[in-house]
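The freezer alarm interrupted the setup, so I double-checked each line after restarting. Inputs confirmed:
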Amino acid sequence: MKKGFKDKVFDSTMIIITAVIAIACLLPMLYMVSVSFSSNYAITARLVTIWPVEFTLESYKAVLADRSIVGSMIFTIWLTVACTILSMIMTILCAYPLTKKKLKGRNIFLVMIVITMYFSGGIIPEYILVKDLGMTDHWSALMFPYCLSAFNMIILKTFFSNLPESLEESAYLDGASHLTILVRIVIPLSKPVLATLALFYAVGRWNGFQDALIYINRQEYFPLQLKLYQLVYNNQMSEIALMEGMSNQNVTPEGLKAAAVMFATVPILLVYPWLQRYFISGVMIGAIKG
Amino acid sequence: MSKLKADTPALQKANVSHLQQTEVIRPNRFLLYLRNNYMLYLFLLLPTAYFLIFRYGPLYGILIAFKDYNIFQGVWASPWNNFASFKEIFSMPQFLTAVRNTFLLNGLDLLLGFPAPIILSIILSEIYVKWFKKISQTVLYLPHFLSWVIIGSISLQLLSPESGLINNLLLKVGTTEPVPFLTEPFVWLFTYTALGIWQSVGWNTIIYLAAIAGINQELYEAAIVDGAGRLRKIWHITLPGLRPTIIILLIMQVGRMLSIGFDRPYVIGNPLVMEFSDVISTFVYRIGLQSFQFSIATAVGLFQSVVGLIFLLTTNYIASKVGEQGIW
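Predicted 3D structure, all chains:
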C-alpha cells in the first residue's frame, strides 16, 4: 500500500518528537561524559557542552588516585555480585515450592509473604532490628535485610506456574527429586525471567543508597552511591584529590565529580542493553500480578 | 485435608475392623507425603526465616511508638507513654508540612508524570521504522536504571545557577537572570517533577506498549476501510483500547499517594526548599536517625503505614470492582 503525503508527514512528526525526547534523555549523560574528559580550563571557562573540550584523563586519574573511592568501587562490585547471587537463590527457593498446588500449608506461606508487600514496620523499627542483630557498620546490613523481594518472588512464581506441567511430571515419575527437577528442568527453561530478576536485584543493590546512609558509618563499607553522595553534596573531596587539584591545577571539582558519576553509571550501562529483550516480559508479569 | 473429610462419612458406616485399618493407613499417608515433599519445605526454610526475621521482626519494634523508648532499656522494658508520641506528632507543624508535601509531590507526579508515558507510548506505537524505534526505546529506558544520587549529581551540574550548563545556555540566548531551578521553592517543584518524568517516562511506556500491541488489528483495518486518518484511529481505537490499563494504573498510583520514596526528595531537595521537599520519609529519617527521637519517628512511620494501607486497600478494592465490570 502506498502511503499518502499526509501519512508521510505524520510519520516524520512522530519520529522527530521521539528523537527529541530520546536526545533529551541522553544529553545530560553525554554532558557528564564530556565534563569528565575535559580539561580544567575548559570546565571553568564553561566551554563544555556535548563534546569534551581539550580531551584529558586527569579527572579519571584523580579519582583512581583516591584510595577511598577505589575501595568503595571494589566493595560495591563485590557486594552487588554477592547480593545478586544470594537474592536469586532465595527467590528461586521460595518461588518453586509455592507453585505446587498440592503443597500443604501453601496458602499460609503465601499470605505471610503477601502481607509484607502491604505493611512494613517502617525504617526506625528496621533500624533497631538491624542494630540489635549487631549488623550496623558491617556489610551484612547491606546484604540480608533486603535479600528477598516478595514482588520479584511473585513474578518468578507466576513464570514457573506457566511452564508446561507435563515435563516436570514425567521427570517426577522417572524418580527425579524436586532438586533435580528444579536444577535440570525448571531453571534452564526460565533463563529469560531469571536474567531479568538478576538485573533488577543487581541494579537495586548497585543503586541502593538509603540503607547505606542509615546503617553504615565506616568508610570501608561505603557503597559507591553513598561515597558519591558525600563527594557531590558534602563536598568531601578526599585529601589526595584536593592536594592534587591544588598542586597541578589539573582537576576541578566538577571534573572529578563527573568522573566519579561515570564510575557509578558505566557498569549499569554495560549490562543493561544486553538484557533489554528479556526484561520486557518480566515487567509485564509484574504489572499484571502487582 | 480434603481427603480426610471425604473419608468421614465412610468411616461412620464402616465396621470396627475397617476403622482400625484406616487408622493404620493414615499416618503412613502423611509419612508418604512428607517423604515425597520434604524437600519443598527444605527449600522454603531460608526464605521463611528471612520473612520472619527481617519482615516480621521489625513489627515488634513498632511497640516503641507507644513507649518512651530508651536505647539502654530496650523495646520491651521501656515504659508505656499513653499515646504521647501520637499526640505530639499531630501538634508538630513539621509533621503536617511533611504530610502535605507528600501529597503535593505525589499529586504533581500524578498530574504531570502519569499522562506522559501514555502519550509517549502512543507516539512510539505510530513509528514503523523498526531500527529507529528499537534504538529510541533503548535510550528511553536507560534513565530508569540510574540512581537518584547519580541523577542528583547530574542535575547539580546542569541546573546550578552559577555554573550549570542550562543556565549558561539560557544566558547566552538572552535571559537576564539565571533560573533558580534548585533553590527557589516553586521552581524546585517543577524541577522535582521534571526529573521524575525524565527518569521514568520511557520505562513506564512498556506496559502501555504491550496493551497497544494487544489491541485487535481488525479494528484498525475496519477504520481504514471507513476512511479514518491516523489521528482518528488513535482517538477512536488506541485510546479506548488503553482505557482499562490506564484506569487500573491510575487507581493504583492514587493508592500509593501517601508512600513516597526516600532517595528522590532527599537527594534532589536541599535546605533552601525544605518547605516543599520535606516529605514523610525524609522527616522520619531526620527526627529518628539524626535527632534520635525514636518513639516519635516510629509513630510517624506507623501512621504512614496504616493510613497508606487503608488507601491501598480501598483503591485495590475499587480496581477489582472496575475490573469485574469486564475489561470494559
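Quick read of the result. Residues 1-7, 9-17 of chain B have pLDDT under 50 and may be disordered.
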